[in-house]
Design brief:
- Chains A, B: It is an enzyme of class 1 (oxidoreductase).
- Chains A, B: Belongs to the ketopantoate reductase family.
- Chains A, B: It catalyses: (R)-pantoate + NADP(+) = 2-dehydropantoate + NADPH + H(+).
- 2 copies of one chain form a homodimer.
- Chain A is of the alpha/beta class.
- Chain A has 2 domains: 182 residues, Rossmann fold, CATH 3.40.50.720; 123 residues, N-(1-d-carboxylethyl)-l-norvaline Dehydrogenase, domain 2, CATH 1.10.1040.10.
- In chain A, strands 1, 2, 3, 4, 5, 6, 7, 8, 9 and 10 form a 10-stranded mixed β-sheet that branches.
- Chain A starts with 7 loop residues before the first strand and ends with a helix.
Chain lengths: 317, 317
């Protein structure tokens, strides 16, 4: 970040994630511009509202809201809160809204979510990934409920930075943006490692919320689902290790214990299923399974869960 | 079977299985007595009706129907069509209805279903198990729809027969009863082997009908569920082999292809779930998993399926 000059931030996709972090950044004094689709009218008129159990009731009104990227000013940072299922379609949007040399940060779960986008972006753009450990959901048009947590782990994917030191400067710059907004952020040396680490949570809870129609509290209260969650977590750790990414011993136990202390939470995949939207099965299940398999590692329970979810997803739409 | 003398048969539990085989046996001239609970009045008044795609519309009226085993005459054969979940409670019922030296045939799926019952029965009673490969369901009180198939594989569990030759005579006697009624029946040398063999079908289809809320036709039409079914079948075969039971190569493929040709079918576990009855998870999942584990064989996909079903079952009642 240039001293004294706050970068202009564009939020691509203003759902629960984009809305929460966008409002937090705007309230910290950043010049944040929001791209919206179905909720444009509601937000242009009524602003954005975050009901946060951590930060209180936050309102942003007026909002710099746009219907199309062509109307947005050139942004130094583009934060992408849209679903991974639409990444390839986002390339023209990002190209339109990006200032020269802009940094693009995908706030998305799953593995290899940058791959679809990278070849469609100019080489001069930096591409980063951010993993959000947060309990947040849309309560209505322009209204976001933030239940707990909020930390972001950020890593560099690929772009004009040649060496690791230069990359880490960009990653630290991203982490600093969030910290200025009162959000815990961590610069990660290895984005793939960060993505695998986040999968330890997403693989069990996202899928089981759909498969069993259950939020975290009942899932954590039943002996059978607890065993299944822990077995799925162990498989993610095995997959990560087979792919050369070290997950700290005890990390799965930490996430498990954290979930036990969380307020009752419905993961985003449940909301997608409920609203008959495509589930993020590629990023969260298919690609980790394929990567582990290529490394000679079978993940049978994750595979069974993926197959069951694929069936449900196809019959839901 | 003594020449010229048809044995008296008692049917314990007159649901879809008990009703179908009981009507078939009664219409073949056997003296069949039916124990009923909630459907006693309907059947005592209106008889039993089997709408069979194979045998046509069959009616049995009047029916020798009983509210309690104490009223039944002593039976030479007792066929048990009740759920495995109530086996321990069946012992007094069986003792009351059994003639001296009677043969008890459990028409039930799953592993070790005889174990709960055997210590509660007199040593003089023979205990056998029968695996029914049949598409049949209750359409209403006393009304049974038979969609397809019907063969029964029968084996000897334990009882007064000392040697294998003597046991096989009893098993052949049971098979002959069914054949007299126009039903394909097979005497199996090893009941445990027959039970594992039947699990190759029950483990995938029973569980997935509940987990995915889907009958056989949609399950067989989707690439992901087909793969999952085949993977679950492979694990059952592995479990059987680890426990020393040989499943013929190609047997799983045969069942898979057979299911593809069957009319659309909802397995019994789906009906149990729908009516908020206990699922037969012990017999069909927990015991096979435990047996395989004791033999050093992990069955991870079956275990994941079992854990998911255990969660659903507990939240359904």
């Amino acid at each position: 970040m240039q001293a004294g000059v706050k970068p202009r931030i564009g939020m691509i996709g203003t759902g629960a994630i984009g809305g929460f972090y966008g409002v937090m950044l705007a309230r910290a004094g950043f010049d944040v511009h929001f791209l919206l689709r179905s909720e444009f009218n509601a937000v242009a008129e009524g602003g954005l509202q975050v009901d946060s159990a951590v930060h209180g009731a936050l309102a942003l009104n007026p909002v710099q809201a746009y219907r199309s990227a062509a109307e947005m000013p050139p942004c130094d940072w583009l934060l992408v809160g849209a679903k991974t299922t639409s990444n390839a379609e986002l390339a023209p949007v990002i190209r339109q809204a990006a200032a020269p040399g802009a940094k693009v940060l995908l706030l998305q779960n799953g593995l290899d979510v940058e791959e679809a986008l990278r070849p469609l972006l100019p080489d001069s753009l930096h591409l980063l990934g951010g993993l959000c450990l947060i309990c947040v959901h849309r309560a209505g048009p322009g209204v976001i409920t933030h239940q707990a947590l909020g930390a972001v782990n950020i890593g560099y994917h690929i772009g004009p930075c040649g060496d690791q030191a230069e990359r880490m400067l960009i990653v630290e710059e991203a982490a600093t943006l969030f910290r200025h907004a009162g959000i815990d952020a961590q610069a990660m040396a290895d984005l793939q490692q960060a993505r695998w680490q986040k999968l330890v949570w997403n693989v069990p809870y996202n899928g089981l919320s759909v498969l069993l129609g259950a939020s975290t509290t009942p899932l954590m209260a039943d002996a059978a689902s607890r065993e299944l969650i822990q077995a799925l977590m162990r498989e993610v750790v095995q997959g990560a290790q087979a792919c050369g990414h070290h997950i700290a011993p005890g990390y799965a136990d930490y996430l498990f214990a954290m979930t036990e202390k969380m307020p009752d939470y419905w993961p985003s995949m449940h909301h997608d299923h409920l609203h008959k939207r495509a589930l993020e099965l590629e990023a969260i299940y298919a690609r980790p399974l394929a990567a582990a398999k290529a490394a000679g590692c079978a993940l049978p329970k994750i595979e069974a869960l993926y197959q069951a979810l694929a069936f449900m997803d196809r019959h839901n739409r």
